[in-house]
Amino acid sequence: MRKSILFLLFACFMALSAGAQEVKPDYTILVGQSIQWKPGNEVIKSVDKSGDIDCVRAARMGRQVSVKGLKAGLVMLTATFASGKTAKCLVRVVEGNAQAGGWKGHYELKYPANYFHVATRELKTGWVDHAARIDNIYALVTQHEPRIGTIYSRFDFKTRRGYQASALDPEFRYTDECGDDNDWDFERYFKDFAPKDPDKTFPWALLEFGIVTTGEDEPRGDLLQDFHTYGWPIEALGLYYVGDETFLGIRCWKFDTRQRPPSGDMGSVYWVDPSNGLLLKRVYADGTGFETVIYDLDYHTWTPDMFPEMK
User: Tell me: the pLDDT tens digits for 156-205?
Assistant: First the structure.
């Protein structure tokens, strides 16, 4: 009798153990790793956690949930749809190195305020635009004026003088030498066309991926501006990360939004410098876009391709 009871207890123990082993997580992720859980085609109203609730960060994004592992643990996620229906997902987070190579789930835009020379080429026209900054001098070279050729512009933030000239038309220039016959003197040119903030002279194209304007500023950013508008977390970039690719000798993060652009536009492919978040290349779905051809962030001596010293 005693042996029968022990056997039954053992059998019950084995059955419970087997049952416990059959409960497998839907996802197993590393600390620092991000995933996207799509429980259905309905809009998600809320996401609740049970178990080790501090082991993940979960944020709803329309019909998906962005999940990031924070520490080892096991958590049950329950998504409640607008219809009242629910869906569950068991996530196990384990210790490991999710930061080895590729996008690390973190993005920060750091652009230089000084000592740079950057040139970008439009993929459709082939035009190349330059922008450079050394101390108080900011210079631009643009090719968007085929009638009068390349335009050279230069601003001095110390003397507050501006200068513009054309490579083809010597009469096309705004300087202090224009005299009374030309209202566009150097002071007015600087006032009307110089960047309002001397610390924000870096080429806008390289900032488009990650800059976010808030408050009264007109929204001018691109992908992360959309994230800010919709309240999406930075981990949502994982939806679009497709791997790394070398460009200009830099192992860039590559993001592709063409299949599901967040703002309803045609989408783009982005090549981003991981060290500072700058956008080095962008190709739209129609093949247009730009690529960086000069990328010097330690520029201290004016080179011949930029405008000569201001008079």
Answer: 888 888 887 776 665 555 444 444 444 457 777 787 778 888 888 898 89
Q: Residue 232 corresponds to which amino acid?
A: W
Q: How much is the pTM?
A: 0.65
Digit-coded pLDDT (tens) for 238-282:
888 888 888 988 889 999 988 877 766 778 999 999 999 999 999
Please write down the HEC assignment for all residues of the chain: CHHHHHHHHHHHHHHHHHHHHHCCCCEEEECCCEEEECCCCCCEEEEEEEECHHHEEEEEECCEEEEEECCCEEEEEEEEECCCCEEEEEEEEECCCCCCCCCCCCCCCCCCCCCEEEEEEECCCCCEEEEEEECCEEEEEECCCCCCCCEEEEEECCCCEEEEEECCCCCCEECCCCHHHCCCCHHHHHHHHCCCCCCCCCCHHHHCCCCCCCCCCCCCCCHHHHHHHHCCCHHHHHHCEEEEEEECCEEEEEEECCCCCCCCCCCEEEEECCCCCCEEEEEECCCCEEEEEEEECCCCCCCCCCCCCCC
CA dihedral 53, 56, 59, 60 (to 10 degrees): -80
